[in-house]
# Entry
Amino acid sequence: MSMRSMGIAVALLVPAVLAVAPSVRAEEKNLGQIAAKNPELQTFVKAAKAAGLDKLFKEKGPFTVLAPTNGAFDKLGEGKLDELLKPENKDKLKAILSRHLIKGNFNAAEIKTTKTFKTLAGTDVTFTVTDKGELMVGKTKVSRADITAANGILHLLDGVLDPGTPKN
# Structure
């Protein structure tokens, strides 16, 4: 390859490399920053703050967060979320949300092969894959997987994993 050809190749590659840079920068944000910017996770962010878990999302980690969407919290029933958000129910809310946190960084492919994980609440969560290829935690669907952050990974859930929720 001549110097002129190499110069043209470099000139063509530089804009392509710069175009990729914004996606790399997104991974520099921590779990808390990514969740706060996601419109589907505003209730989860509010609940994490009320439970005192918001600081955890800024720590080094890594953590795998099974984050219930706003719609997932809506399924709890009328008044249930408001009750959980009260200061006197902080421990109960923390127990529920801790069931959504796993120490380590596990993407969907790893989850499908490992299947059972210990949560920060000390309970096990077991994942399955449906005949349609959907990733499930018990009866709760993983609606979006593999949102990466500097200190872990987020998977969005269409339900809340209450400590009383059966594993399968």
